[in-house]
Design goal:
By secondary structure, this protein is α/β, with parallel strands linked by helices. It is 31% helix and 27% strand. It folds into two domains: 364 residues, Rossmann fold, CATH 3.40.50; 103 residues, 2-Layer Sandwich (GMP Synthetase, Chain A, domain 3). A hairpin with a 2-residue loop joins strand 19 and strand 20. Helix 2 crosses helix 6. The longest helix is centred in the N-terminal third of the chain and has 17 residues.
């Protein structure tokens, strides 16, 4: 199957059912399929050929899917661009991809001009392009191979310049089936489409909803004020809250009456949030995955999250997983399956490092227990080596987040005269909280070599569009004059430092 076959299948099975609703508009499955074919003709008439890259700069509208469907029928490659990036960052990705064509939403035209997209052969979404889609001439181009790449999604670039992950038609179709299974999607579901359609999870959950015959409901924004009215007016059944599940549930506009399921990043929700969902009769799924893996890899249930703290659940059936360590020990997670990226575009060195003998080396440290549950430990590059001991930042972050005054926290390694590298905690706090209070909290829950030596109270933790903490930025910004270095503890107390 090609990516566009998901639209054609929907038009065959549920032609008049609503596939997409946004900003007071709706698109049926028949219309979605018709426009997919129209985009193929329009792109071909504009000079797009097999293997060509098409930059896509748009908000969440059906065209983001329809243009990708059209590209898949040509063997071309869509390059979704993060609308939250700067013009220079977008320009880098466009030039790195070698895109000669662009599809642009009118609300983003200033960004398109400043990033150079206006210099490409481009289509501006709106009435003019709609007319061109209706009038586009038929072409007799052959059907592409399902193994051909259809999307070049750029990594979030937390450790350097982003790389373009190539995902094939087949990878997307299998990944859609994975999401259907992970979330238990059916034709009765209405998905809150709040995740951006430049992100693997945004595309993946929307495509899975279409594969199951459901409806993608796009809210006017991602904040609780924007999403709850959409949930209520459209009877949304499945949702993710990009600004945080706990915050959304506490909002005065919260109306979870029709929700049957909330999903989020596995092992990140606080127990009180999960308990609140359970009390409301709303189920939960925690997801672990990556762009390189083609979206979801493992899924945890609400019971898993409450009974097995730190778990990211069990792998989905189409995957083989292995941990490069002894039983129960932290090691790099290796993944094998049909949804993996084909490679990094133009980066054979990075591809060879990430893909070896059919296995994706994720760069994530996890452990696997005897029951087949995976537990996230840390990013390999984020681990701190302090005084010869390995400290996993994610473990320290979880302990800090258990403190009632801590709203958010990030842990990194910073240079330290005593230990070479020491653990630093950046904390967003509620009210007044002293580093000494946080230190006492950590000393009761962590080994003495793991406790943060440095603390800095901040107003916010910097994150990228997918919620990942920008740790490279935090390490680079470390200023000893702005942080507190705690004294070493007495060696007479066996629970303290020597």
């Amino acid at each position: 199957m090609l990516l566009a076959d998901l639209a054609h299948r929907g038009a065959t099975l549920w032609p008049s059912r609503t596939a997409f609703t946004w900003d007071g508009h709706r698109r049926t499955y028949r219309e979605l399929d018709e426009r997919a074919g129209a985009w193929r003709r329009l792109l071909a008439a504009g000079g797009v050929r097999e293997g060509d890259r098409i930059a896509l700069l748009t908000v969440n509208v059906p065209d983001a899917l329809e243009a990708a469907f059209g590209a898949s029928l040509l063997g071309a490659v869509i390059v979704p661009l993060n609308v939250r990036l700067s013009a220079d960052e977008i320009r880098f990705q466009v030039e790195d991809a070698g895109a000669r064509h662009a599809v642009v939403h009118p609300a983003l035209e200033p960004l398109a001009r400043s990033s150079g997209l206006s210099d490409l052969t481009s289509w501006r979404l709106g009435p003019e392009t709609d007319d061109a889609l209706r009038d586009a001439p038929e072409t007799g181009l052959p059907r592409p191979d399902a193994e051909a790449p259809v999307m070049q999604l750029y990594t979030s670039g937390t450790t350097g310049r982003p790389k373009g992950c190539l995902l094939s038609n087949r990878a997307w179709v299998v990944a859609s089936a994975n999401v259907v299974q992970a979330l238990g999607l059916t034709g009765d579901d209405r998905l809150l489409g709040a995740l951006p359609l430049f992100h693997v999870a945004g595309y993946g959950t929307a495509l899975a909803t279409l594969a199951s015959g459901g409806t993608v409901v796009v809210p006017p924004g991602a904040t609780p004020e924007a999403v709850w009215p959409a949930v209520a007016s459209h009877g949304v059944t499945v949702a993710i809250f990009p600004t945080g599940t706990g915050r959304a549930l506490r909002h005065e506009a919260a109306a979870p009456g029709t929700l049957r399921l909330v999903f989020g990043i596995a092992a990140t929700e606080r127990p009180r949030t999960l308990t609140a969902l359970r009390d409301l009769g709303v189920d939960y799924r925690g997801i672990y995955g990556s762009t390189e893996a083609g979206n979801f890899v493992s899924v945890s249930t609400l019971a898993d999250e409450l009974e097995r703290p730190g778990t990211v659940g069990r792998p989905l059936p189409p995957f083989d997983v292995a941990v490069d360590a002894g039983p129960g020990e932290p090691g790099e997670l290796l993944v094998r399956g049909a949804t993996l990226m084909s490679g990094y575009a133009g980066r054979p060195d990075a591809t060879a490092e990430a893909l070896r003998d059919g296995w994706l080396h994720t760069g994530d440290l996890l452990r696997l227990d005897a029951d087949g549950y995976l537990y996230f430990v840390d990013r390999a590059k984020d681990m701190v080596k302090s005084g010869g001991e390995n400290v996993y930042c994610a473990e320290v972050e979880r302990v800090l987040l258990d403190h009632p005054a801590v709203l958010d926290a990030a842990v990194v390694g910073v240079p330290d005269r005593r230990w070479g590298e020491a653990v630093k905690a950046l904390v967003v706090a509620r009210g007044d909280v002293a580093p000494a209070d946080l230190d006492a909290h950590c000393r009761g829950r962590l080994g003495r070599f793991k406790r943060p030596r440095w603390y800095e109270l901040v107003e916010a933790i910097p994150r990228n569009h997918s919620g990942k903490i920008l740790k490279r930025e935090l390490r680079t910004a470390h200023d000893p004059a702005k942080a507190v270095r705690l004294p070493e503890q007495s060696s007479r107390d066996p629970g303290q430092d020597g």
